[in-house]
Amino acid sequence: MGKIRLLSDALASQVAAGEVVERPASVVKELVENSIDAGAKNIEILTQRGGIALIRVVDDGSGMNRDDALMCLERHATSKIRTKEDLAAIHTLGFRGEAMPSIASVAKFRLTTREPEALSGTEIIVNGGKMVSVKDCGEPPGTQIEVRSLFFNIPARRKFLRTENTEFSHLETTVRTQAIAHPDIRFTLVRNDRISFQLPATNDQRERIAGLAGRDLASRLLEIKEQTHHGVTVWGYIGPPGMGQSDRRKQQIFLNGRPVEAAMLTYALREGYHTALMKGQFPVTFLFMMTDPAAVDVNVHPAKKEVRFHDGNGVRDAVIAAVQDTLQGSMKRPVSGVGLTGMDKPEAQVPTAKQDELIPVQEQQSIRHNWAGFAPVRQEGERHTAPPRTDAGEKESGVGSQESESGPSETAPESGKSSESIQSTGSPESPILKAQNDDDLPPMRAADYRLMGVIGKLYVLLEHKEGLVLMDQHAAHERVLFEEMRRRMETGGVPSQGLLVPLMVELAPKDYDLVSQNVETLTKLGIAAEPFGGNTLKIDSLPTFLKSDDPESFLQDVIDEIRKDSDRMSKMRLGEDMVATTVCRHAVKANDPLHDAELVKLLADLLECEMAYCCPHGRPTLIQISYAELDKKFGRKV
Q1: pTM
Q2: Is residue 340 part of a domain?
Q3: How many angstroms separate the CA atoms of 459 and 70, rounded?
Q4: Is there a single domain that holds both residue 50 and residue 194?
Q5: Burial of 306 (0-12, 13-18, 19+ CB in 10 A)
Q6: Domain for residue 536, yes or no?
Q7: What would the pLDDT profile of 35-65 be if each residue is shown by its tens digit?
Q8: Fewest CB within 10 angstroms: 248, 352, 494, 599, which?
Q9: CA nearest 271: which of 5, 62, 614, 567?
């Protein structure tokens, strides 16, 4: 007798369940996706013991007749695709026909469903893959599925489930993700007979994000205006420069309504932010993309979360362009001094280093030139009039209302005139969430500021009609020098220094081929390399700013970066980390005293930069505290 046997349907379903049903969250994901595909406008998810004891998903979708209800429990039975051509252009969230039979094979399963025009519905009960009963029922239109005692018949799988709180957190994350992707659907999540959250349907994507992630976060997000590149339409919301997280929990990407993961998209987001985010930080992202279903393969894994693109470079470029356009459009105002997240404190002191050819002397001295369009701090005994505030001019009642006419204004700026939307929208009572990147706001100019002084030998105090602004002189000078050197790299390349004795480096065959294809990039980075027989390179020159005692290790690091990033980002970005480190050494330090004219020139140069409000490492250069926030701190406004 042969050794190979055909598995029974029940056992085959349990094997398939190992890929589809990992934990209660997997069950909820599959059932909610089916409800969305059925056109539901209200979805309710009830759980007990983190979904291990009970998961009930109720929707008001199209429902099924008895034949379809029975057929949906058969393996590879689906209403989503018919031919192999359909598989190449999938428009629905589900399509494999594996979820329902897999779930029913590892739990106590009950399905009730009814079509809107039907007089009665159908109830089907399955225990561990075995059909128990099929009968009529009087359920409302739509579908209700109960999954009890998950993995009751597979103890080996059940013992790998975590605690109730852990399982529910995964389940809740799944529901939240689907709710963000489909704001037009009302979602309700109930845990142990208590409502976790209830989200009404809305046409405002930001409002849905606020209901799940909080109004404070949602009010600070920048809106990506809908735009199309390479056949990919991109829109959504991203965190402003400097706002990041230590993990990817708030980095959510949706493609054609489906939450997806792809390493290429993660790199594209990071490339879009570039120096606007600190290293090791991940951007806060709610990114939505639409593309031709035929241009993406979602049939990579049974969980349907991993995807592959036919034109990966085009998708990457579309995401990068959308993020960069949004960040550049948002750089009209300094970073808010309230509610910053994911940002380290600026360095109080940076070790000095000797000047070299990277920063020419004339450029180092250019900061000392005066600039006449700026109002410096008043001299001893001189009366100075501050820039007028953009107040509404209304009287404020309460504390401080007895001030004299010459005192400060009693009211905060109108929310429409204030550059800081956090104050006006962060309150739970606020009915409207206002984006920060308001196209009606003109960019800041140096003439809009009044210099007041320096504190801590580092932070420059500036007054603006909208509030107090603090400038980090070290971070600001870093940004100015960085952009100057980056422009030089893109045009003429980095200055290089010839070696007295050429450096011979033997590489692995793959590395040698990689270097041979990127000789022009290495030349712009100040590295002169040429073949020397076999897999050996002869290095004749290195960048002048290289201070390493081991140039061979430096070259290997560059090769590693090329190998890692050659298909994901611009080649010229390879040298920017080195430039950022170098300008950090050359920028003015925390204890370097600067005259008023020097501070004037520094601010003017900073505001001319492409990304003026953060340094090359992602830290803020300017932080604003609005009059509204100051009034709150002093009890003038409640």
Answers
A1: 0.69
A2: no
A3: 71
A4: yes
A5: middle
A6: yes
A7: 999 999 999 999 999 999 999 999 999 999 9
A8: 352
A9: 567
